[in-house]
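During the second half of the funding period, the structural biology subgroup turned its attention to how the target accommodates small molecules. The most pressing case was N-oxalylglycine, which had performed well in the primary screen but for which no bound structure existed. We therefore specified the complex as follows and requested a full 3D prediction, including the ligand pose.
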Amino acid sequence: MTTSAAGNVEVQPSGAALGADIVGINLQTDLTDATFAQIEDAWHQHSVLRFRGQQLDDDTLAAFSARFGALDMAPVTRSGKPYILERPEITVLSNVVVDGKAMGALGNSELVWHQDMSYNELPPKASLLYGIEVPKEGGDTQFYSLYEAYNTLPADLARRIQGVTCKHDATRTSSGELRHGYEESYSNEERPGAVHPLVVRHPASGRKALYLGRRPNAWIVGLSNADSDALLDELWAHIANHDFVWTQQWQVGDLVIWDNRCALHRRNQLDPATRRLMHRTQVQDVATPVAGWD
Ligand code: OGA
Ligand code: MN
């Protein structure tokens, strides 16, 4: 447990490679500047924070999220409208279907390890996810420290990725679904997406992190398909072989914020017979990922 003189919350690290609980705050009613500063410091230190037992309405969720920076507009639904008309910053994630219509995005699927929207030039720096209805079992969200992933790379592999960039595929969601308006197949050169360094330096912590996005359709710029796949497989095997993971088992009223610049996340599969309903916001970054090689 750590407390700081300025703020008045308790920070309880998870004991895993990342993640901490923030205890002693009701975000619906009290948040001083000093306490927010303490929370932001803890976030930079632990990459993922959880606030249990909250009762947030959408206005408070949006207002708290906006303390971290300007909010992105949520993607619109298939009908072209925001999920919540009065709060277009909020994305609804749900597996619930009403009258044949999905209430939210991402359904029941298992999601692969990913960073959110890294196929954009300027990916969000943070995502906040709030649990409104959660199943008793299934649908856990896992987080993975990309600082630790970088720190533990074999020296030879770390050397080989200095100065190397990767193209992040824009055509599929984290559940593997083809996004509206994209085709089934592209060459690596033509594929829509954004190019980022494989090693980045976090602007707040100054620490270096691997920057991987997601494995499907990634391409190491300039390499042949075979050489690119070999290097990416080596990096993702490093991820799979190390347990720098913290698992969030959801309770109603949990709010989780993750740092999208230095953590991967994924979701385990959901039983379609259970209900899961979450509201999410995303905070814009102010600069594109900065290369972390010396
Ligand atoms: C997301 C996401 C995971 C989850 O909102 O970006 O990956 O557990 N969600 O729903
Ligand atoms: Mn995601």
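Two results from this model are relevant to the next phase. The helical segments are 33-46, 58-66, 146-151, 155-160, 225-240. The longest strand covers residues 126-133.
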